[in-house]
Task: structure prediction
Amino acid sequence: MATGIQWTDETWNPTTGCTRISPGCKNCYAFALHDMRHAAHQAGKKVPAQYAKPFKELQLFPDRLDTPLHWKKPRRVFVNSMSDLFHEDVPNEFIADVFATMYEAQWHTFQVLTKRAGRMASLLSNPRFPFAIGVRAWVRLARRSPEKAKLVTSDDVVRDVMDCWPLPNVWLGVSVEDQKRADERIPDLLNTPAAVRFLSCEPLLGPLDLGCRCWFSLNSGPNGECEKCGRPRWLGPNRIAWAICGGESGPGARACDAAWIGSIVAQCRAAGTAGFVKQLGSRPISPQPISPKRSVNL
Result:
């Protein structure tokens, strides 16, 4: 479906539903939107079937897996704007199905964002996972188009997935609303095979220090730490290539200091990481009026 999210063109929700796991989830728009429609369903109003269950109950929609294959115009696709693909209730096999679609729809760019970075790193680092993607991609091709499936074997597809792994059209990102979540999730992101890695610093709830600032020192130790200061080197085109940041909006929005956003922009600029300032939020704090300028986007 079309979206008002500024950093993407389309949303695709093969799953819906989630559970809160960190402070950034407190005022989740997806919770509020879904449960408002769930209440309408409970009141007897006609709404789509997915709203029969509350948002806390995760739902899988296999019938939506092929949707991006019908979009012929290339676009950026935000995967699961109404869920988290790496939620513990999403089976590994279903995640492999989602990746199989992203493999087949190579003309799109898919943006996968999670708060469950540990599971993402563990699953995508397993050499069996791209194998599973290839098998499922071939099975689905055979189901949709038996004639096309006769032209390739499952081994051909598996080999192709493994040769191009990580998938070049899939960006992987983590949400980091404060320093604690950055310290927990960014190392997992960097340990995940990915063509492009990105951060969503939104809703930004405090200042973020995104690692080493010895930008002139390019040498790194065995664990990616800066050899000059010993701190982690998180930002940079070959590490984290893109960062979205913004304050919170909507009912109950928490304050966001414009200086926190300015610091992220400065850190990205110094490291050669693209940045995107989405918004200051409903409760910006600033000693003077600010007109944010979006920096170079990927």
